[in-house]
Write a structure and sequence with these properties.
Number of strands: 2
Strand order of the largest sheet: 1-2
Strand content: 5-15%
Helix content: 40-55%
Radius of gyration: 17 Å
Distance between the termini: 28 Å
Amino acid sequence: MHGARVEADFGLIQRKHLTVTGSTLRSRSVDEKAPIIAALREKVWPLWAAGKLRVFTYKQFPLVEAAEAHRLVESSRHIGKILLVP
């Protein structure tokens, strides 16, 4: 979220057998996006529906602390979702 350059611990990535992937679809044509979207529907959505994928929640904030939650979002010091809860 900070642009094209990032720092990563590749030792950790290798030890955990992780995969780093990235893409941007904005600059692609509709014809280029169509097969990507089809693959997403075929390969990812079924995993999501089966409960095999999960969202990582970084932190929850009570609704009254929404300003603090927004500051955290803007700082990009988090990995995962930030939730506002009642």
